[in-house]
Every structure is written in structure tokens, then in C-alpha cells.
Amino acid sequence: MLQLLAPLLFLVLLALLLRPRVAPIAIAVMAVALMAIFSTLFRAFISVTEVIIISAIIVVLVLLSREGR
């Protein structure tokens, strides 16, 4: 459970800080859902820190792609 709550909270805060007008909760939930699937598939090889780092990268990439539009 902690493996999902930590990145979710981190992503919501990160998205709110970076771009308040973008739907940050939607981005965070999508990224956490992807990371939950990924961490379930590779449970032995992934830690909470890696989930947070990869989730942050996903959020930044989504925000940058929206910035270009």
C-alpha cells in the first residue's frame, strides 16, 4: 500500500507545483496506475524510490508534451 500512496502524493504535489492549470490529479493517477502495473509485473526488481523517480519523469514528460501544444 505504501508503494502506491507515496508516489501518488508526490505526483499530485509535483503536478500542482509545476502547472496548476493542467489537471494534475488526472496526470498523477494515470502515472501511478502505470507504475502499479509495472511494479506488479516486476515486484522483485522495483522499490518505492524507483517508483517515485519514474513517476516524476512521467509527469514531467506529460507536462512538457502539453506545453508544446
From TrEMBL:
Its protein name is Uncharacterized protein
Is the keyword Membrane in the record?
A: yes
Bilayer-crossing residues are 45-64
Keywords recorded for this protein, A-Z? Membrane, Transmembrane, Transmembrane helix
